[in-house]
Every structure is written in C-alpha cells, then in structure tokens.
Amino acid sequence: MPIAPIPHNVPPPRPGPRRPRVLLGLALCGLAAILPRAEAQPSSSLQVHHWWTSASERRAANVLALRLGEEGVEWKDGAIPGGAGLGAGKVLKSRVLAGDAPDATQIIGASIGEWAELGLLLEFDGVAVAGGWNNALFPTVLALVQHRKHVVAAPLGIHRINTLLYNRKLFARAKLAPPSTWHELALAAAALRAVGVAPLLQSSEPWQVATLFENLVLAEGGPDYYRELFVRQTPQAAADARLAVALERLRLMKGWMASPLDEQPWTGVVRRFARREAAMLVTGDWAKAELKELGVPLDDEFSCAPMPGTGKLHLYSVDTLSMFTQDYAHVAAQEKLARLAVTPAVQQQYNLAKGSVPVRRDADPAQMDSCARASWTAFAKGAQSQVPSLVHRMAADEESRDAIIAEVHRFFVNDAVTPGEVQRRLAAVLRSLKLQHRK
C-alpha cells in the first residue's frame, strides 16, 4: 500500500553478555523487561518507524511499501520529521521505554550494535543465508548489519557524504571547471564572487556544519588521520596541525556562504540551490535526488564531483532497517521486509529514488546516473577507499558524535573561538569519552 502523506506538523534472539557500559544510557537498562510479551497473533501489517520525510525520501520509502504490499503485508507509516534522524531517535527511545516499539525501524551505523546489545533486535540469519548476502553484499555493509555474528539489520543503500554539487551554468559564467583540490576550490570561490555569484550554500544547523567539517578533515588529513580522530578517537589526534587547518578552512568557507548563520533544514538549502542562490553545496548525495524532485535535471543544470581533496575516497553512510522482537507475532512479515530490501529490483528502484547506490556488489553501474556511478565505483574499490561518516553514525556512537558536533558548531557560529581552543576542548572531550568507555 502506498504511504500516506505526512502532516506538516523464529527463535528468540541470543544476546551476548552485557558490557559494563550500556551504550544507550542507564534509562534503557531495563528495556527487555518492559517490552510486552503478548501471545503471538497472525499479522499482515508492519509499523515502520523512520525519518524519510522529504519528497525524494518519501518516493524511496514508497518503493518499499509498494513491494511489501505485493507480498500481502501493509506498511503502516511512522515517519518522524527532522534532519539526520535526531527527532526520530528520541521518539524511538520513548516508544521502546513505553512498551510500544515499532515492528521495523530505521537504525543506522553504530546505533545498530547499541540496540542489538540490549537483546531487542530480531535476528534474521536465515533470510541472509537464503538471499546469499555473504556473496551479494559489500563486506563493509555485511559487517555493519551484523552483531555478534548474527544479522540484525537489512541494508538499503549507500550514501556518499563527500559530494560537491555545483551549478554548471554558474560555473560556465565564471569559466570554471569543477575543482579537485583545495587550491582550485579557493580559486573557484574567488572567481564566482568576481561575477556576482555566492560560492557556497550552507545551513548553520549543527549536523550540516559538521558534515562540511568532516569533509575538510578527510581532505586535509586523509583517511588514516580521519580514523585516528573520529573512529579511534585518540586525544592526541586533536592536537594535530591538520585539524587546525581544517578548522581554519571551515571559517574561511563561512565567508563564502550565502547567509551562513541561517539554520535551515537540508531540504530548504536544496531549494535555495535549485534557485541558483549559490554555485556550490557540499552534502550527501541525497540532495541530488531532492533536486530531481524539484525538476532540476542532473548534468544539465547541475552536476556533482567528490569534495576537493577526496577524489579517490568514499565518505559513506548506509541506510538500514532493523526489526524489534516484541511478541514475535510479526516475524514472518518482518522477514519479508528484510528479504525484499536486498533484492536486486528493490535495490535498483529504492536507490534511484533516494540518491544513494545499491549495497550489492553485482549492481549494474550502467543503470545509474553519473553521480551514482562514480559513488558506487569508488565504494567498490574496497576498504582502502571507504571512510565511515562521523556525523551519520558510521564512525562512532551517539554520545561521541554529539560531543564532537557540539564543539564544531560552537566554533562555526562564534568567530571569537580559536582553532586552538577547539583542539584543546576536543582533546578533553576525547579523554573523557575514553574514560567512560572503560567503565
């Protein structure tokens, strides 16, 4: 059944031993005890919790809903508005605490392991074996959806976060080619200003600022340093000169931006980009799909390229769906959704609508647009080219992510804060996080 428009406003799982540190916070320690255990009843519907609320995201979710409907299962939509899933995450925790967990939910990255560690996610190893996931999926994706060697999530698509969207016509006015280095990017900004064009669009919303910043860290420091800072979270990495350079460049780019302190949802930024209010936008490739919904054609009005300095790298985020165990009344329907998500046909249709690329190694690049083809090819090169996004929960847990984003955002909005101060504060944050992780 198609998704309704959003108003504006099986054996039980085998959880492993609990770690001393409960990743989702003390309030969730007793979740397994409070979830309802009603007697199983046949079900022909699934309530799905997610944050796909833009026009392109709705189209992608509708692909899943329609295919699930063809299998005799109704998709009951539970979309929660809010960029980067911040609102949806809070609502999900509240619902689980209240004993009202959804049947299926969008959970991504490190959050998958946090929920699985509590013993709340359905394992569907049989679906994965029957679908040949071991051979079909990229190894990085397969590892992401597993916890303690059990499959606890269904992968949907891979987004490239290091995407530079640029307006081809505005670039032609300034006689520019897409930049591939920081030096070329700075020259392009100057040339665009000289012809009366704002070089860059950006919202001051914290996660959007941090998305630009993690691109700058990757471009300046490379994948090894990026992982040292954001994945291993070594306090000494915060003192590195490369971090200071990334911070200085973030502040320089703030001066290129049209209305840099306007806090807008990403969809609003994309609409402004479609109206030619600036020539460039650094974000995930979901923006490409939203431009398509606005009637702005790829490779005519705009194109995309890797963020300068990251041409051979893929800063990734992977969309995934997990299923809550609850009373096991919905297992058959939940397994249908997990199976469908990875089938070649759904992969092609979903990712075409979403702007992402398939999680399957056997996908056909010839069926992709130019941006998607470049993204899928870069990811397919293997682990050496793949870098997990901090902002989009691939590199670290929620607590670490939020603490780092807060420091970056503080620097962005307050010009009195120096790069050195940010480095000292980040080092302290990382030391504190390491201490907490050891408890």
From TrEMBL:
Keywords: Signal, Transport. It is found in: Periplasm. InterPro entries: Bact_solute-bd_prot1, SBP. The keyword Signal applies. Coiled coil: none annotated. Its main location: periplasm. Part of a binding-protein-dependent transport system for a sugar. This is Probable sugar-binding periplasmic protein. It comes from Pseudoduganella namucuonensis. The lineage of its organism: Bacteria, Pseudomonadati, Pseudomonadota, Betaproteobacteria, Burkholderiales.
